[in-house]
UniProtKB/TrEMBL annotation:
Protein name in the entry: ATP-binding cassette domain-containing protein
Any one GO molecular function term: ATP binding
Family statement drawn from the similarity comment of this UniProt entry: Belongs to the ABC transporter superfamily.
Matches recorded under InterPro entries: AAA+_ATPase (IPR003593), ABC_transporter-like_ATP-bd (IPR003439), ABC_transporter-like_CS (IPR017871), ABC_transprt_ATP-bd_su_PQQ (IPR022467), P-loop_NTPase (IPR027417)
Keyword tags: ATP-binding, Nucleotide-binding
Transmembrane segments: none
Amino acid sequence: MQHVKTNGHGSVAALDVAALSYSYGSKRALSDVSFFIAPASFTVLLGLNGAGKTTLFSLISHLYNTRNGAIRIFGHDIDRASGEALRRLGIVFQARTLDLDLSVYQNLSYHASLHGIGTRDARQRIDALLASVELSDRLHDKARSLSGGQMRRVEIARALLHRPSLLLLDEATVGLDIQSRASILATIRRLVVTEGIGVLWATHLIDEVDDNDHVVVLREGNLVAKGSVADVVKSTGKQTIREAFSQLSGLDARKATGAQT
Ligand SMILES: Nc1ncnc2c1ncn2[C@@H]1O[C@H](COP(=O)(O)OP(=O)(O)OP(=O)(O)O)[C@@H](O)[C@H]1O
């Protein structure tokens, strides 16, 4: 049986990233990144464009093979026990991935069948999830007819079909209006409380961080801060997470030298 590593407090981390590095040829995208997220918690992965967020997600979701370091999902190593690990993972990628010519129901039921969920169970699950993302009335509409925010919510429902315990979202609110952004963020935060899901929410938008969140800050592939918002703010000597992120991500230095941001 596979050894399940705990986070030092006796409980198994929802996600444990240990000494992870990754390069595209000679281009280093991640350097020795380590952090964990607790079950039923909301962690914001903060980083400017090019910080390495998408690369990290591609490694966690096993699109890329881990060459240096390790990734465990609820103790299951993504390379050595990928089936066990991926069964617990739901993911919403930055790029849109719905089939626009299929209905909402067809998009979801296809995904359910890929996960081996039977037709009846799938139908119940789809109805419940569409209700939770407030799209029950769009079941038979073509994906093409939905707004950007509604498509995102269908993608979130799809990522939850197989009842994952860890959910990753990569810039889930990019391109959406303020109201849709707030609604999607509220939906995900609710899932943490009602379903006990551990969430890793990648963004470069600092106003998506709440005072009670945990944050992981990446800068050019290096992890430059991790912990509660209060601890990260304190570690920088700043007053707010916005100011702390500006310093940690190098924006302050760029502004000081008059570089374009
Ligand atoms: N396929 C690739 N080939 C070469 N370099 C890449 C490739 N994908 C990403 N990179 C580089 O790796 C680094 C990290 O990119 P990544 O896409 O992971 O960052 P990101 O934080 O997700 O940024 P964004 O928010 O712009 O998507 C960047 O310097 C990027 O140019």
